[in-house]
């Protein structure tokens, strides 16, 4: 590597990149000034927010890195239409706090519909770049929640993008991983903030879809299924905790629910690495105790995220340096049980532990150019323990490719966000429009101004004979 400023993602820690310089603009105009400044005209630009993505989207070797967490302009709430204009640097907790503070004493309170789960400190702009989704049971990816956004292109021009204005950019920049410009501000669709009740049961994956359909019919808007990760048990990837959330009478009084805190999560993470039979017992026991608890529809989507937890864990266990890597796979809902049974057969002999796993639902995305939700899929997330030596990374990469092949055998797909280990054939099968995506990138950015390790990888992969 050449000299520069070392950057890395904050979860897997497997993407060390030296950028040449980091700039932190605070307004759309500052972003435009940087991109139109002759001083930077010949230098490729990469874009980052909270640095959680694991596929190399936010950094490029030798690039000028724009850190956008300072983009926190707030354009106000349209209470008549349930919209808010917010800077792309807002994280989800910051945005929720701002929405609450601006609507104190009024009813209803408008707030977010969905955010990604697992971590809260992701920016609004980064969420658009990956076209994220949450635990909504009847929701498409976040493109469905976006009315418009402001984008600064490679020439420093400020463009407004929506379904009727710069529509091609709208479809490509959402889920475009920073390839088309800098998203600086977002007009986000909101929903009334509601009280919801948590419903909890232990069930099995063969009953999951029909149970979720019943929950949806009963009014539940959110839910997910945390499955057993004990590879030595017959319940592996089969039995799990199903939680869902349905609106209740808004007049009911709220009591503070007893949620898992940082110490609890630290214990669960330790057990997931040392006693995967017990971790399900502890986790399910907690959730069953919270059955009937009341929450708000926005803040129940927030959770505890322990940064750098693996550093302390490795020291405690005296083990190799490691982190968890994520893959997210999509399969037809009718095939979920068969897929999970075959995934269990695939994973058991690998010796690579599953540290966490969940199943959610997603509705079809009919809008984004690089749609991963080609139909209304079941989403399956695997967090795999990945040791950071060459053999450990190679073994994890091989397992992820085999899991992708398994999902593709069911006419499914996978999420591009988390790693770059898929083969070109897998990318083309999961994303038939990927070559067209790269061509549109060249159309809007012919000089390759916006670059990242993610884009460079796929540029070179698809240039192969």
From TrEMBL:
Keywords: FAD, Flavoprotein. It comes from the Bacteria. One of its GO terms (molecular function) is oxidoreductase activity, acting on the CH-OH group of donors, oxygen as acceptor. Residues 12-193 form the FAD-binding PCMH-type domain. PROSITE patterns: FAD_PCMH (PS51387). It holds the Pfam family FAD_binding_4. InterPro entries: FAD-bd_PCMH, FAD-bd_PCMH-like_sf, FAD-bd_PCMH_sub2, FAD-linked_Oxase-like_C, FAD_lactone_oxidase-like, Oxid_FAD_bind_N. This is FAD-binding oxidoreductase. It comes from Luteolibacter luteus.
């Amino acid at each position: 590597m050449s000299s520069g400023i070392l950057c890395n993602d904050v979860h897997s820690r497997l993407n060390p990149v030296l950028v040449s310089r980091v700039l932190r603009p605070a307004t759309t105009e500052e972003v435009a000034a940087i991109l139109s400044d002759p001083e930077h005209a010949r230098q490729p630009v990469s874009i980052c927010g909270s640095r959680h993505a694991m596929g190399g989207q936010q950094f490029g070797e030798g690039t000028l890195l724009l850190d956008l967490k300072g983009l926190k302009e707030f354009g106000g709430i349209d209470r008549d239409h349930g919209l808010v204009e917010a800077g792309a640097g807002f994280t989800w907790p910051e945005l929720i706090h701002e929405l609450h503070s601006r609507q104190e004493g009024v009813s209803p309170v408008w707030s977010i519909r969905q955010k990604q789960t697992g971590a809260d400190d992701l920016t609004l702009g980064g969420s658009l770049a990956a076209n994220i989704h949450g635990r909504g049971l009847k929701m498409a990816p976040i493109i469905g929640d976006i009315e418009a956004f402001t984008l600064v292109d490679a020439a420093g021009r400020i463009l407004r993008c929506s379904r009727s204005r710069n529509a091609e950019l709208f479809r490509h920049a959402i889920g475009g991983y920073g390839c088309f410009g800098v998203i600086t501000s977002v007009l986000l669709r909101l929903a009334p903030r509601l009280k919801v009740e948590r419903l909890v049961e232990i069930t099995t994956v063969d009953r999951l879809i029909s149970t979720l359909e019943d929950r949806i019919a009963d009014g539940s808007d959110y839910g997910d299924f945390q499955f057993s990760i004990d590879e030595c048990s017959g319940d592996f990837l089969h039995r799990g905790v199903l939680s869902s959330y349905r609106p209740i009478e808004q007049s009911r009084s709220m009591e503070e629910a007893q949620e898992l805190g940082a110490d609890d999560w630290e214990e669960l993470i330790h057990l997931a690495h040392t006693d995967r039979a017990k971790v399900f017992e502890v986790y399910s026991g907690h959730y069953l105790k919270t059955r009937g608890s009341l929450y708000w529809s926005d803040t129940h989507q927030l959770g505890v995220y322990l940064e750098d937890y693996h550093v302390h864990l490795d020291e405690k266990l005296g083990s190799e340096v490691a982190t968890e890597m994520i893959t997210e796979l999509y399969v037809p809902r009718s095939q979920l049980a068969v897929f999970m049974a075959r995934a269990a057969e695939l994973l058991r002999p690998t010796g690579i532990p599953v540290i966490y796993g969940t199943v959610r639902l997603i509705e079809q995305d009919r809008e984004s150019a690089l749609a991963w939700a080609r139909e209304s899929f079941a989403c399956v997330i695997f967090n795999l323990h990945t040791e950071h030596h060459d053999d450990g990374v190679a073994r994890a990469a091989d397992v992820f490719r085999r899991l992708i092949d398994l999902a593709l055998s069911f006419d499914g797909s996978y999420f591009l966000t988390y790693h770059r280990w898929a083969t070109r054939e897998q990318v083309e099968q999961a994303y038939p429009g990927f070559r067209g995506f790269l061509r549109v990138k060249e159309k809007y950015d012919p000089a390759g101004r916006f670059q990242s390790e993610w884009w460079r990888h796929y540029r070179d992969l698809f240039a192969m004979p």
